[in-house]
Write a structure and sequence with these properties.
Elements (H helix, E strand, L loop, with lengths): L4 E6 L5 H11 L3 E6 L3 H7 L11 H8 L4 E4 L2 H7 L2 E4 L19 H13 L4 E5 L7 H10 L7 E5 L9 H6 L4 E5 L3 H14 L8 E5 H32 L3 H9 L20 H14 L3 H28 L8 E5 L14 H11 L3 E5 L4 H8 L6 E3 L3 H4 L5 E4 L4 H4 L3 H7 L5 E4 L6 H7 L2 E3 L10
Parallel strand pairs: 1-2, 1-4, 2-3, 4-5, 5-6, 7-8, 9-10, 9-12, 10-11, 12-13, 13-14
The chain binds nicotinamide-adenine-dinucleotide (NAD) and uridine-5'-diphosphate-glucuronic acid.
Length: 458
């Protein structure tokens, strides 16, 4: 088949893989190729054992793979053939040198820019899909304009807003698609070309076009706002625990104001995931680099509040279990940073596991999708950790359960059966407020929800 356009995506991760699968599915006349340096990842994208767990993704990949969707490690060939290149490589927080712990590490992004210059033989649109500091496109344009072949590259920002666990649905029905371009004729033309891809399935009024810098910055701001809401309600959860108010009732009462709404005001042990913390710290770093220290301090508090919430949860477990958890078997129900994903990046579960192991508890980690990643996260730590996918086996002879991830399966467990198998007194610390606390208390558990009065038999 003769394809009308060649699209390449560099980076076959949580964003590159699903995004390109949906573009391929919705645009059968385009050839979509996803490349990565990681051979194992590409091998798994070419199998039915995909490298990431995402509901509905395997069906989408299967429907397009081999027809107009291809996964490969042939980066030079991919670059040569492409009309449009999406760059979706990782942009983690820098761990070294200037800006360590705050700034974005742009080494992977810059490497792809050099590869594009080296292998290109014709003009292309380069799409920033990764989340990047505002004004990165300027650096990108400089690198790309260094080419001796006089090839024109137009850089466009098209940040991704999908959330893990709902990626397929978010891509099929996005709230908006954002495309930022230079405010020049070639910039507008490139933005129209990218918009034309999404217009295959996204209503035109949901495709927003802006200048390049607004698009880059909007992505950081969107994540900062979402995380800020979580930190706000988590701050209130601490106050609820002192006053016997109920944070869930507060979320409902406050969220009922349509100006506030219900999304992202569920108290938790803290937000995790690869992006919120990194993107806010990046925003903080950018503000500081412009001398905007008050603005930086304001946003930094969102991350500090998140750290505080995680610390609070650990301290509560230790305190309520009579100030010692040495050799006590504690089950973490869930390890993924949220439900419906196997991703554990920045999961509060990692922090919690480390702290409980330092206190010499015996840990059991139970998660339907994240045990492979949990093993990697906790590798090399001193202490006893068992990985058990079955919640009933996991809780046998345990002293406490801590809910880390809001998986639906945990809500439906037979807690009478679980209680019968546990050592007494048995504790539940519900870091997600997903369980029926009153019922658990009636069964015999001592229950410690988040931001609600505790229910104990002492
Ligand atoms: P990821 O780590 O899952 O995937 C990135 C991939 O890029 C890796 O497989 C890596 O091997 C590959 N890569 C790195 N350098 C390369 C190179 N030079 N050539 C070829 N491949 C290379 O990351 P991700 O979660 O997909 O995130 C990618 C970007 O998207 C980040 O900037 C992130 O902030 C942003 N983002 C992520 C999400 C999310 O839900 N994970 C959502 C929106 C935006
Ligand atoms: C988030 C954003 O929602 C996406 O729009 C964005 O594209 C993405 O980051 C990104 O840039 O990577 P994601 O991290 O996948 O998506 O998942 P969220 O649903 O946002 O959850 C993030 C964390 O907040 C999870 O740990 C979740 O459990 C927690 N959370 C969420 C709460 O604690 N309370 C809430 O009310 C909502």
């Amino acid at each position: 088949m003769k394809f009308t356009k060649n699209i390449l995506c560099i980076g076959a991760g949580y964003v590159g893989g699903p995004t390109m699968a949906i573009i391929a599915l919705k645009c059968p006349s385009y050839k979509v190729t996803v490349v990565d340096v990681n051979e194992e990842r590409i091998g798994r994208w070419n199998s039915d054992d995909l490298p990431i767990y995402e509901p509905g993704l395997l069906d989408a990949v299967r429907a397009a793979r081999g027809k107009n969707l291809f996964f490969s490690t042939a980066i030079p060939e991919g670059i040569r053939a492409a009309d449009i290149i999406f760059v979706s490589v990782n942009t983690p927080t820098k761990t070294f040198g200037l800006g360590a712990g705050m700034a974005s590490d742009l080494q992977y992004w810059e490497k792809t820019a050099h590869q594009i210059v080296t292998y290109s033989e014709k003009p292309k649109i380069i799409v920033e899909k990764s989340t990047l500091p505002v004004r990165t496109a300027e650096a990108m344009e400089r690198i790309l304009s260094e080419n001796k072949k006089n090839i024109h590259f137009e850089v466009v920002s098209n940040p991704e807003f999908l959330a893990e666990g709902s990626a397929v649905n978010d891509l099929l029905e996005p709230d908006r698609v954002l495309i930022g371009s230079q405010q020049t004729e070639s910039g507008f033309k490139a933005a129209r070309e990218i918009a034309a891809i999404y217009a295959h399935w996204v209503p035109i009024e949901k495709i927003i076009t802006t200048n390049l810098w607004s698009a880059e910055l909007s992505k950081l701001v969107a994540n900062a706002f979402l995380a800020q809401r979580i930190s706000s309600i988590n701050a209130i959860s601490a106050l609820c625990e002192k006053t016997d108010a109920d944070v869930a009732e507060i979320s409902f009462a406050v969220g009922s104001d349509t100006r506030i709404g219900f999304e992202f005001i569920n108290a938790s042990i803290g937000f995790g995931g690869s992006c919120f913390k990194k993107d806010i710290l990046n925003l903080v770093y950018i503000c500081r680099s412009y001398g905007l220290n008050e603005v930086a301090d304001y946003w930094e508090k969102v991350v500090k509040m998140n750290d505080y919430q995680q610390e609070r949860f650990v301290k509560k477990i230790i305190k309520e279990m009579f100030n010692t958890i040495v050799a006590k078997k504690i089950v973490l129900l869930g390890f993924a940073f949220k439900a419906n994903t196997g991703d554990t990046r920045e999961s509060p579960g990692i922090y919690l596991a480390k702290k409980l192991l330092e206190e010499r508890a015996a840990l059991v980690i139970c998660d339907p999708q994240a045990l492979e990643n949990a093993r990697k996260d906790l590798a090399g730590l001193e202490g006893e950790v068992v990985y058990e996918p079955d919640p009933y086996r996991a809780t046998q002879a345990a002293q406490a359960i801590a809910v880390i991830t809001e998986w639906d399966v945990f809500k439906k467990l037979d807690f009478e059966k679980i209680f019968a198998g546990m050592r007494k007194p048995a504790f539940v610390f519900d870091g997600r407020n997903i369980l029926d606390h009153r019922r658990l208390f009636q069964i015999g558990f001592n229950v410690f929800p988040l931001g609600k009065p505790s229910l104990t038999h002492f």
